[in-house]
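Form 12-C: Joint structure prediction
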Amino acid sequence: MDTDSKGKGLDLSTKELKKLRGELVVILPIFLISLYFFLGSFQYKPEARDVPMLIGLLTAILSGMRLFHIIFPKSKIGEFKEAGLAGEFDSMKGKIEEGVLKGHYEEVTQEKTFRNEVKAFIGLIGCFAAFLLFGYIVGTFFAIAGSYYFYGQRKIGALLITLASMYIIIYLLLYKLLEAPEDFGLMLEPILMSLGLI
Amino acid sequence: MELFLSTLYSLFQWPNVAYMLAGTIIGVVVGVLPGIGSVHAIALMIPFTWKMETNLAFILLVSIYATSKFGGSVTAILFNIPGDNPNAVTLIDGFPMAKQGKARTAIAASATVSILGGLFSAISVLVFLPVMYQIILLFGPAEFFMLALFGLSAIAAVSSKTIGKGLITGGLGVLIATIGFHPLVGQARYSFGTYYLRDGVHMIPVVLGALAMSTAIQLWMEKSSIVAKGVPLSGSVWEGIMAVFKNIPLFIRSCLIAWVIGVAPGAGSGVAGFVSYASAAKTCKNPENFGKGDIRGVIAGDTALHACSGGDILPTITMGIPGSATMAVLLGAFALHGIAPGPQIIKFHLDLVYLIVFTLVIAHCISVVMAVGFSRGMEKLTKVQAEIISPLIIVLCLIGSYIGREYWQDMMVATIFGIFGYYLKKHGYHPIPLVLGIVLGPIAENGFFQALSFSRNGLLVFITRIPSLIILLCVLAVIFWPYIEKLYKKPKTSTSKV
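Section 2 - Result
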């Protein structure tokens, strides 16, 4: 029993540590960016440098404290346990929610694995690439159809309905009615221009 | 009075009424779709309102805000699926009622409190507007700088579980806002010599990326396709409506709780609904019936969802301090249309304030008719899979970030902030302070310089003016709240030990 609980405790702390280390993805860029803003502000005129200098310094200190806590998890510096007013509201809501929703409703969600994350990011970057190369009018087709197939959907009917409703919004509403700018992307535009189509 | 009536009349004229209907349809659909709420819908719609007339843009946006909650309540009652997070409070008693054959009764009660709650919100804004106007007339540039600071610190303190994390993301937002030409000095900051960065990082791609795209990524990963079986639509509508009037004290108490929570920066309808429900369950007779299909549970929760709108909107339009996450995004819409919240909006755009208030009430009424009428069709919407919703959100985000300035780099910024926003949420950092930092950063910077240029005492201007000093104390109180609370609580524990 004892060993079990000890094992569990160790396991939990390892998990927590892993979660804390994962935060580096967020905090390290923020720390470096804020440090850059602070140090970079010295090159500007006094009126232009005050805000980035002050806010850069404060953000660098706070994110630096958090970074310190991630590197040395036993340290209390940068632990940021203090919940503000919202924290109180949140925990109040959380407690009530936990109490009253028990047995009423449970969200069914998949576990967020690194593989899932990478897949989603590839999907997102793919959509961006489609827009960059073909512009939003044509790129929408590639973005929707591509990500639809990328996620293993094979129902043509649903895809056609989605594409049709999207083109009503984009082409009729946005392009024709709201006079959004014409755009065919970095790759398609020169081709269409050379063919004399636009 | 003339302006008041003419604004009301104008709402029923073409094309205003069409925009309100469009906003209501979008709001109800968004309310029903699992995983996305009014914050995302408004963020997605803001770029499309860029070229619209200001009044039309706000009719559309406020309609979405006002109506998204009721659609979610109907799906919570009928299918046990809260359309948006705050609607979870409705299903606690709503779904058991539906299972007992009282689905219509629950929906009728929810619809009645939706309309009455919306009306309460509107009246509360109209009543407190003159009071707020008198207060903000005392404000100068120093106070506006302090208000922006207060908005930032308050939202950082309330939208994150820890103040430190909120302040970090808020600070990052302000720093991003400093990129580009300084308006007074004319010097380009942090531009790396590129034309794109000289113009500054625009608010829209950051808002779309950090809020909407990150949600799309989350949905993709969770694949939360919810398949539910609905319950038959039975029960008495009249009974539901009468139940609200029989429980008027409960309704009023829920309205007041929601209003106070609504005014508190950052705490929106989700918190209001649960706090009001808990208060009802504690104070009403036969509390054991709550959670088993008690109509008072539906009334308490749903009243708070709708009645907090007034408390949300009031500080947003009068002071630029957002009452909730959705209001933080709406502040971005104000900035985009060149309207600075505060005395200017009341002095020069009072018609817009009235328009927002009337839209709040009328859109509530339309949404009720729409959601009740098409409640069966909503079942199909709840089954829409994440694989379909996510690409649509991403496509709208990319288009929205491009059409404003026609820079492809804006789409890249949205994509980067989409990924970054996902990681922020994953590690307990809310992206709202980041967005607010970008919106309020320039306001704070301008206020800071104007205050200094008018001041003979330099930085002392921020503490020698009484209103500025009061707001500064509020900023400090919000940031150091946990420590103040500890000081306040310590003597109590020592006496209890003795």
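Section 3 - Comments
Residues 2-497 of chain B form one domain. Chain B has one domain: 2-497.
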